[in-house]
């Protein structure tokens, strides 16, 4: 039985469940408590920022909303796996789910995502084009955008200046490597990037989305071993890694955090979400970090692309409080006062034209200065989203395994591409079935 048929059966069973309003006892017995599935630790402070933002714009709603946070694990893949298990077990779906873009095709194809096209009608002209692309699937709008994950190059401005490196002049991969050598001439213990034994999987999303790479042809046949963009990504990663300008530190490790704090990692091309983490890793370095555009690593013209497009809030078709959560998210996302308050509390960049251009948003950042919003706005115009299939989770798991093997010199690029191709054919077959 194919994955699509299994999911359709699970969804059909879920539709038979009785749904109702979740209430929270206490001072306000009619408080609406939304179930929210996300990844990471259940952070009620951040979630409550969303409520506070709506209450700021609509004071009459104060005390109306609450959260029941459900953490599925550490990342997007954990959310999709949790949902599959819940569907198999006939469990009630939460009111909203945090997805990255690559999860959308699998669930949208079986009717899991509620069509929000009508809810968006009053706001279409206000939404940034990249945000609308993020939450659109075929002829429907199927989510509310949380963050556009554009590509930004974070760097220690003080170290780069002393080493005589101008990020704006770094265009090609060769330029990037030359800058890495120049950095080490002045600061021998500093590196321009960290590329560990496990190459971070989101690097593939960021490069392949921007260089025109494809995993399949128009007939859904895998072309991993012949696609030029796929090969160029691996070749450039290896070219940089073997040049000696990177350090063998994996992302999301204590060494990674310490590397930023002590100057070992003096820059990193990543996604804009790093702006939420660097100030915590190196709080004493406020004003020393700045932001620029990515070099053309992997053949991405002008650094275009994205890290999985971005993340979003999907409302399941059978959510117990679907209408209520749509109303809440519409206020949060599209009311200017609410979105500006959310930016003030959490730093979530507004994705409407009127809010993002407000002076409160455009003012210098406390950690990154004037460069953050300036460069983020430029990168938003370069958003490109990879052509994800319903099997993208497994596809990228397989692909990134081979990229890391090449990075450890365990296999050649040619052999990695050939074996990756064979694995996708044997394990997946037609990614749309």
Task: Provide keyphrases for this structure.
2 domains; 433 residues; alpha/beta; D-Maltodextrin-Binding Protein, domain 2
Can you tell me about this structure?
- This protein is of the alpha/beta class and 433 residues long.
- The chain folds into two domains: 3-149 and 309-357, Periplasmic binding protein-like II (D-Maltodextrin-Binding Protein, domain 2); 151-305 and 386-427, D-Maltodextrin-Binding Protein, domain 2 (3-Layer(aba) Sandwich), CATH 3.40.190.10.
- The protein is built from 19 helices and twelve strands.
- Helix 2 (44-57) packs antiparallel against helix 14 and helix 13 (322-334) crosses helix 14.
- The longest helix has 16 residues, at 392-407.
- The radius of gyration is 22 Å and the shape is globular.
- Mean pLDDT is 92; it is low at 1-27.
Describe this structure in a few short sentences.
The protein has 433 residues and is of the alpha/beta class. It has helices at residues 3-14, 44-57, 76-88, 104-108, 117-120, 129-135, 157-163, 173-186, 202-208, 228-241, 254-262, 278-281, 322-334, 336-346, 353-356, 359-362, 371-380, 392-407, 413-427, and strands at 32-38, 65-71, 96-100, 136-137, 140-141, 144-148, 151-156, 193-194, 246-247, 267-271, 289-292, 310-314. It has a 5-stranded mixed β-sheet, with helices on both faces. It has a 3-stranded antiparallel β-sheet with strand order 10-7-11. The chain has a two-stranded antiparallel ribbon with strand order 4-5.
